[in-house]
């Protein structure tokens, strides 16, 4: 009759030690497998992270060096030409320049009865703000009446003066977006950018504020312009136009290059007077126009007819 115990003999001490060693060996092998598995997972995770970071860096580099797109339409001269008829300001339409294509200088009205006003401005430049605040109303009146044309060249000299936000460049790009899509709204948008001009060294207006001003200016195709502002679509063009202004002769003038902003020309003559006295600028416009008129209407002395020999 069984007493309920095992019929197997009890392991000896040596057998117990061997069993313990075997168990320990199995545990060590399992631990090594876990460590190898964890190591692989960690290495795999690091590799994936490195690949992801490399992809991000690659995208940033690609975006920074991607081929330049065309410039904005209606700015073939690197500026937009605005004229007026019956109180309405309209832009002269021109095709967009291909990347790397040289701008085409505007042919000025040389009749002597029209003031050709050309401005090179930076939307962060405080002196440009002074000139615009002082003279915007009178320039609008002159252009609307047909007494003057206005050609505006937005450039970005102060890109590094806005606490890292590149406001100068972004604002010039926004102006180019408006010129490209809604050119007849350009005068109003240009005026609003200066009416809301931020202080130099501030962060400037953000993109949402630039887009809000475009809406206030009554632009057409607002969504297209908003996307253009967000994408900084004409960043490369702004940079190239700025370089050209600083290094190349200024068309229709004797200036070898732009040395600062604002640079204001009337019929090719540079205005260097007060930025806060509207009467002084108006007087300069009349004088420059009068000089052009005198040059265009002067009659050369007749060439004497030789007397036949007798």
Write a structural description:
The protein has 310 residues and is an alpha+beta fold. The protein has two domains: 47 residues; 217 residues, Glutaredoxin (3-Layer(aba) Sandwich). 49% of the residues lie in helices and 10% in strands. Strands 2-1-4-3-5-6 form a six-stranded mixed beta sheet, sandwiched between helices. Strand 5 and strand 6 form a beta hairpin. Helix 2 runs antiparallel to helix 4, helix 3 packs across helix 7 and helix 5 runs antiparallel to helix 6. The longest helix has 53 residues. The chain starts with 12 loop residues before the first helix and ends in a 13-residue tail after the last helix. The N terminus and C terminus are likely disordered.
The total strand number stands at 6
The CATH superfamily of the largest domain turns out to be Glutaredoxin
Query: Judging by the overall fold, what is the CATH architecture of the largest domain?
Result: 3-Layer(aba) Sandwich
Low-confidence stretches: 1-5, 54-66, 299-310
Tally the structural domains: 2
| Average pLDDT number | 86
- CA radius of gyration is 36 Å
Number of helices: 8
First and last CA, distance: 173 Å
Q: CATH class of the largest domain, please?
A: Alpha Beta
Q: Would you tell me which CATH topology of the largest domain applies?
A: Glutaredoxin
Q: What is the percentage of strand-forming residues?
A: 5-15%
What coarse outline follows from CA principal-axis ratios? rod-shaped
The strand order across the widest sheet is 2-1-4-3-5-6
Secondary structural class: alpha+beta
Family: Belongs to the thioredoxin family. DsbA subfamily.
Biased composition (Basic and acidic residues): 12-33
Transmembrane segments: 40-62
Pfam family, one: Thioredoxin_4
């Amino acid at each position: 009759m069984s007493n309920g115990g095992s019929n197997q003999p009890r392991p000896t001490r040596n057998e117990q030690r061997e069993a313990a060693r075997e168990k320990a060996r199995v545990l060590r092998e399992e631990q090594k497998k876990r460590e190898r598995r964890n190591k692989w997972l960690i290495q795999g995770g690091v590799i994936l992270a490195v690949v992801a970071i490399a992809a991000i860096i690659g995208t940033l580099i690609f975006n920074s060096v991607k081929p330049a797109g065309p410039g904005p339409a209606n700015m073939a001269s690197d500026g937009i030409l605005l004229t007026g008829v019956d109180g309405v300001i309209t832009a002269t339409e021109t095709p967009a320049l291909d990347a790397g294509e040289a701008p085409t200088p505007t042919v000025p009205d040389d009749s002597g009865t029209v003031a050709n006003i050309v401005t090179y401005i930076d939307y962060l430049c405080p002196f440009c703000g002074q000139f615009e605040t002082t003279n915007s109303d009178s320039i609008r009146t002159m252009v609307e009446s047909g007494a003057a044309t206005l050609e505006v060249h937005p450039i970005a000299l102060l890109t590094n003066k806005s606490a890292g936000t590149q406001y100068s460049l972004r604002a010039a790009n926004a102006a180019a977006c408006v010129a490209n899509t809604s050119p007849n709204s350009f005068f109003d948008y240009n005026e609003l950018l200066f009416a809301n001009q931020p202080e130099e060294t501030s962060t400037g207006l953000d993109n949402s504020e630039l887009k809000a001003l475009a809406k206030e200016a009554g632009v057409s195709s607002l969504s297209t312009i908003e996307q253009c502002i967000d994408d900084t679509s004409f960043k490369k063009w702004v940079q190239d136009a700025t370089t050209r202004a600083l290094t190349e002769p200024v068309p229709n003038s004797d200036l070898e290059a732009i040395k600062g902003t604002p640079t204001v020309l009337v019929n090719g003559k540079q205005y260097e007077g007060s930025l806060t006295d509207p009467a002084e600028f108006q007087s300069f416009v009349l004088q420059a126009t009068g000089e052009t008129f005198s040059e265009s209407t002067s009659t050369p002395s007749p060439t004497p007819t030789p007397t036949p020999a007798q």
